[in-house]
UniProtKB/TrEMBL annotation:
Gene3D superfamilies: 3.40.50.2300. This is Substrate-binding domain-containing protein. Residues 44-300 form the Periplasmic binding protein domain. Residues 1-25 form the signal peptide. InterPro entries: Peripla_BP_I, SBP_2_dom. It comes from Aminobacter carboxidus.
Length: 349
């Protein structure tokens, strides 16, 4: 009788333990998530700056996703801040979001290191944190979302080296120094350039991701370097600026890499450039927002979600330009997206 009692008691305890473990696992399916937050959620968008067109388009996809989630009864409020490029201001704004107890924070970081303490605080309070594009060094976030920026730079450099026959003089155009996306693209290009010593870097510069400063910077570099054979541009607006600078000086266009900036793609087609491009999809904002809700709803969200890099070349540039009218003249022609795509990405397919 006692044996039967203890056997039953043990089975009951084991069942309770397994049940508790399963419940805990469901509640802790993603980092920072405690399972005690309920829909509809308040989402915070901690924007580092809103002036560049890429950022405006990205925020547009985020806001559209919020409207869709509202219709599903999953979100009731979006809080937006703009740090105007100041990483310290961004930290203060994130702290304000924590103090107001938002359920999720969507973040493009102004610094890879500075937000660590405030993000740890948010994570400890069960706030979902989705960091995309410009990433932080800390793991105290729910998930990081990005394309492979190093692969971006590697593929661009390989294209340029191949187009130049493995030799010649190039200019290298980077985005702002200290921005992780820009730095990682450059790091990815480095091994390719080092493996091809006959490709010589005449000059290298960092500029904002805008056409006007890029054109000005390239104009100065062209005056100092009369013979160039290629341009390794690691940003779309930078490429447009470079093409315009060459054109204004009456210089021959050279093989060039870039991004899905509408102006660059239109110049590419107009001038029959030897070009290559990829993209940092603006819908990363929408995906990050959707992903935050998935995490809050108890879904298993990995610590890092890799977004595949599409390639734009002479074979498919026409497909992008066919949709150009749907995007701002100074904007980016990004690929289509929907929830089915998001689910496929989350499933790792």
């Amino acid at each position: 009788m006692k044996l039967s009692y203890f056997a039953s008691a043990s089975a009951l305890c084991l069942g309770l333990a397994l049940s508790f473990s399963a419940t805990s696992a469901a509640e802790a399916a993603a980092n920072c998530i405690k399972g005690d937050r309920k829909a509809p959620y308040t989402i915070g968008w901690a924007n580092i700056y809103s002036v560049p067109t890429w950022m405006k388009q990205t925020q547009g996809t985020l806001e559209a996703q919020i409207e869709d989630l509202k219709k599903q009864g999953l979100v009731d409020k979006l809080v937006i801040t703009d740090a105007q490029g100041d990483a310290n201001v961004q930290i203060q704004q994130i702290q304000s979001m924590i103090d107001s107890d938002v359920d999720a924070i969507i973040l493009i970081a102004g610094s890879s290191t500075a937000p660590a303490r405030v993000l740890a605080d948010a994570c400890a309070k069960g706030i979902a944190i989705i960091n995309f594009d410009s990433l932080v060094d800390t793991d105290q976030v729910t998930a990081k979302v990005n394309t492979d920026s190093a692969q971006w730079g590697e593929q661009a450099a390989k294209f340029l080296v191949e187009q130049m026959g493995g030799k010649g003089n190039i200019l290298v155009l980077n985005g702002p120094a200290g921005v992780s996306v820009s730095d990682d693209r450059r790091k990815g290009a480095t091994p390719v350039l080092e493996a091809n010593p006959n490709v010589k870097i005449l000059a290298e510069t960092n500029t904002a991701y805008n056409v006007a400063p890029a054109q000005e910077a390239v104009t100065s570099l062209l005056f100092a370097n009369p013979e160039i054979d290629g341009i390794l541009s690691l940003g779309g607006a930078l490429s447009a600026g470079a093409v315009l600078a060459l054109d204004k000086q009456g210089r021959t266009q050279v093989p060039i890499t870039g991004e899905n900036a509408r102006q660059f793609l239109e110049l590419w087609k107009e001038k029959d450039l030897k070009g290559w491009a990829t993209m940092q999809p603006n819908w990363l904002g929408a995906f990050a927002t959707w992903l935050s809700v998935q995490a809050l709803e108890g879904k298993d969200v990995p610590a890092f979600v890799k977004i595949p890099l599409p390639v734009i070349d002479n074979a498919n540039i026409g497909d992008y330009l066919a949709r150009a009218a749907d995007f701002p003249a100074d904007g980016y022609i990004y690929s289509p997206y929907d929830q089915a795509l998001f689910e496929k990405i989350l499933a790792g397919k």
